[in-house]
Input
Amino acid sequence: MLAFGVRRETPWPSTGRSISAMTTVMSRIAQVLLPLPLPEAFDYAEPEGMDLKVGELVAVPLGPRQVSGAVVALKDAHGHNRALKSVLARHAEPALPARALEFIDWAARYAVDSPGQPLAIALRGARAPKPRPQKLLRATGLRPARMTPAREKALATADAGSFPPKALAEVAGVSTAVIKSLIQEGALEIELREIPASFPAPDPARPGPKLNPSQAAAVEALRAMLDEGGFQAALIDGVTGSGKTEVYLEAVAAVLAKDPDAQVLVLLPEIALTQAVIARFAERFGAEPGEWHSGVASPNRRRVWEAVATGRCRIVVGARSALFLPFGKLALIVVDEEHDASYKQDEGFIYHARDLAVARAKIEDAAVILASATPSLESLWNAEQGRYRWLRLKARHGQAVLPDIELIDLRQTPPEPGRWLSWPLVQAMGETFARGEQTLLFLNRRGYAPLVLCKACGERLCAPDTQSWLVEHRYSGRLVCHLTGFSMPRPERCPHCGAKDSLASIGPGVERVAEEAAQLFPEARMAVFSSDTVQHPEAARALIEQMQAGEIDILVATQAAAKGHNFPRLTLVGVVDADLSLRGGDLRAGERTYQLLAQVSGRAGRADRPGRALLQTYCPEHPVMQALMAKDRDAFIEAEMAERRAAGLPPFGRLAAVILSGPDAQALEAYARALAASAPNGEGVEVYGPADAPLGLVRGRRRKRFLVRADRTVDLQAFMSTWRARAPKPPGPIRMTVDIDPYNFL
Ligand SMILES: [Zn+2]
Output
């Protein structure tokens, strides 16, 4: 540990700074991987006496710039007579462990991308600013000559403990001027408190919760698996509310107890879930775990990154990018809600965090536990094949029963024109409200209306240069493109024909459904839960607490509220448009719809209150709807598997997509044809395309797609990288992206 302290620190450079690099006498060559989209690591001379080690972070020259990267290999320079630029300096940050480097390399090969891309993710924490000491105020014991009621209040508050200046003013209910004057007169003093580098040690010996027989059996099986050691994988497959979290918490406890240095990573698909899971860990182990996701402030990320690298943080709860943290002794990875499509990263470095979690566990010789109430077909297939231990939790925690799921056939009982709730659903809402119980109206669509159309000229309003409808948001009064983030105020006149008051809002989003529910039940207390209304984890926590306390009667929500939360008074779930995710028709539409609706329906009813779920649909005969109503997941999965097997689709075959984009339609077309001609011939591989992408125009760029299907036995990555290598270089503005195992077909 001390070694890091004595090194001279080199700041992470900003780009563009000019430096002079010279060649020096060298004994070894350092291969340095840079966090940039370059095909490979570069060679640099190791200056005499620097004594680098693999994994260390160094500054090197790149053209006129200075950049920082990781040493991935060191080799003897004997017989090497090409002049090389030298490594400039070593950074003080901890080195990346060898297995973390191996994982970065593996991930790049898997994604058919450059290794600098995953390295950039792995170094995010190292490049964040350091946490600064916290400024706190405490009372000195001196009393100023002149006392006022405000000063009394401030000093009485400070006597009870130290506070950050702003918080002291807020808690005492006084102005910041009062606080300032008390500092000037010596009654308060500033204390700088260092943020501790270590996280408090979790205590696995604390007593765990009482487990029901089904949970206890699963925990036993997991302990046996962990005792075997080495790479192991398990799937916890348990209906909503069966207590999966308690089960994996005990596996975490076993890992922590067995080895005092072992580290654990828990992945969650959504930031909104982290607070609840962190609270569970804090309760079970008496210490808060490290938290890692895009909502965590940079200095805190830096703290987690360093503590993980030095073994001073043993549990991390985080989003998918936490997979790239520099764990030195990773013993267990838990992937909660493993079926969730949010685990797929669609932009930049494209990867599926569930698949990479299994790969990292293999590299680390660690265990991986996947958990879900509605596992993905991929994981079920692996469980069926015996590659994963399959732990089914049947009994529902607290002896509650799954809700009754009923279908409302909208062809029989359509809502009135301009309305979205049919009378059977409205009636059920009325009964629920009268009993003092809660309703969740589910619609996976943000905003007020998904489409704004001009009644005069028929124009559908789109974002500029993008083939995507503008979504009306009435709370903010804006039209928003959910794809590009473009937004504008709702215009008074049609931007196309200039007609006044001609714009009509077509279709419902959560805001519109909330408006209708408020008209139907003016006395009911309403709230909307979507990523627009709830933007921070704290806001999510506040809304969830209000719901749990029974302060909300009707919650209108997107899938942000569909997962993991327990609302004891919620007895009715109304799904406004059960067919929504069936449209679009990609290969996972049925599976995704089943998973989503089963999860949402599972929110209704707990313990002593039986629940009901009503699904509004135009196709009640669809296998997904029938399976939900019959609560027959196995039959649905079997039918879905049979279809995929017949078509050779995942998990029975493999897919990859190639997406081309460019500003000029003709140039793009020409390149797409050349790319098609360069595709290698492979047995058991079919290349489809080029075809216009369903989203044909985004931010002024035209888009084309290829789809590659391969048999399971084919090395798809090898095929794709051969193709990439053979392909003519795309002309300047044309970009090519490879997406292994695509989830998005737009
Ligand atoms: Zn118009």
